[in-house]
Specification:
The chain is mainly alpha-helical. It has 13 helices and 5 strands. It has 2 domains: 6-181 and 299-328, HUPs (Rossmann fold), CATH 3.40.50.620; 205-294, Tyrosyl-Transfer RNA Synthetase. Helix 4 packs across helix 7 (124-138). The structure holds adenosine-5'-tetraphosphate. Adenosine-5'-tetraphosphate binds next to helix 1.
Length: 334
């Protein structure tokens, strides 16, 4: 029997998880855990870049862990852990920083977009974020990284760094990972401003569906979603981003081909599309929301899952880090 390939992915607990995170990442993870050796992290160190920590970060981290489980991640199949519990992430990130060029980081679209919001004091962490992400992935020798479209460029940098270090050290220290981008749902758009992606840290909550939103809130947000001035309902993300976004949500949540969902709305109104989409989203999230609340009420069990996952992640990560340290000539720890 061949050893399954490794997958690593994570979500930042910057705020509560959104429908975009769920459809673009989490829902795929649930399928992938059957076939691959999976590591799923709550990447809390990344969140410090914009959230700057505090009680909310801790609460959001527990919430993220509970959401992974409620969505269907099975801790007996996948390793669940919190990024900051594994010190190797920061150590490898520093090493990779020494092999990353400023020009490469300056070209990152997410850095350019997010630094505009930061004003005069742009945290260096925002600039170096893709390097920490590369460390997250390379420590576990991940072959595949399921991400939404927004992370494609960061993954490309991870590949470059893996190849650069492998060449520099004259040996395959790191597996060169490939992105796993779902054909549909990889970029769920904001409901209010459908030309930008739905984001946890959007300044306007009305365009974002949080997994914690109740049924009325979800319905209200979808019914007020921006559509366009036409009448026909078709998948055309360039000219009809709002309508296309709702069609995609239904297709992914109902596990139906996009063309089949589109065909249901040949002679229908935008109002019907919105109310059906609201029903589909509410129904899909109801079960998950109930489970999240039950899981959050039992912190001892969540802690036990984390402890098991951390021990497993620590062993794998340290193995990679030790090889890197040796190869680069850093003195052994003992
Ligand atoms: N709108 C989206 N559609 C599809 N996938 C998405 N992802 C994020 N937004 C969408 C995917 O979710 C995973 C976790 O993302 P992240 O927490 O690392 O941060 P992000 O990509 O920066 O996502 P957000 O929600 O926009 O967070 P903030 O506001 O904190 O920056 C990734 O796989 C991502 O691709």
């Amino acid at each position: 029997m061949t050893t399954p390939q490794t997958i690593l992915s994570g979500i930042q607990p910057t705020n509560q998880i959104t429908l975009g995170n769920y459809l673009g990442a989490l829902k795929n993870w649930v399928k992938l855990q059957q076939q691959y050796r999976c590591y799923f992290a709550v990447v809390d160190l990344h969140s410090l870049v914009t959230a700057r920590g505090g009680g909310e970060l801790a609460a959001n981290s527990w919430y993220a862990l509970a959401t992974y489980l409620a969505a269907g991640i099975n801790p007996a199949q996948a390793c669940l852990f919190v990024q900051s519990h594994i010190a190797a992430h920061c150590e490898l990130a520093w090493i990779l920083n020494c092999f990353t060029w400023m020009g490469e980081l300056g070209r990152m679209t997410q850095f350019k977009d997010k630094s505009v919001k930061e004003g005069a004091n742009i945290p260096a962490g925002l600039f170096n974020y893709p390097v920490l992400m590369a460390a997250d992935i390379l420590l576990y020798q991940a072959a595949l990284v399921p991400v939404g479209e927004d992370q494609r460029q960061h993954l490309e940098l991870t590949r470059t760094l893996a190849q650069r270090l492998n060449k520099h050290c004259g040996q395959p220290l790191f597996k060169v990972p490939a992105p796993y981008i779902a054909p549909v749902g990889a970029k769920i758009m904001d409901l209010r401003y459908p030309h930008i992606k739905m984001s946890k840290t959007a300044t306007h909550a009305d365009g974002v569906i949080f997994l914690s939103d109740d049924a009325d809130t979800i319905s209200r947000k979808i019914k007020r979603a921006t559509t366009d001035s036409g009448r026909d309902i078709s998948y055309d993300p360039d000219n009809k981003p709002g309508v296309s976004n709702l069609l995609v949500m239904q297709a992914v949540l109902l596990d139906l081909p996009l063309a089949e969902v589109c065909s249901r709305y040949q002679e229908q109104s935008y109002g019907k599309l919105k109310s059906d989409t609201a029903d589909v989203v509410v129904a899909a999230l109801r079960d998950i929301q109930g489970k999240i609340n039950t899981l959050l009420a039992d912190r001892t069990s969540l802690r036990r899952i984390l402890d098991t996952g951390s021990a497993q992640a620590q062993a794998t990560a340290q193995q990679t880090l030790n090889r890197v340290r040796d190869t680069l000539g850093l003195l052994p720890l003992t």
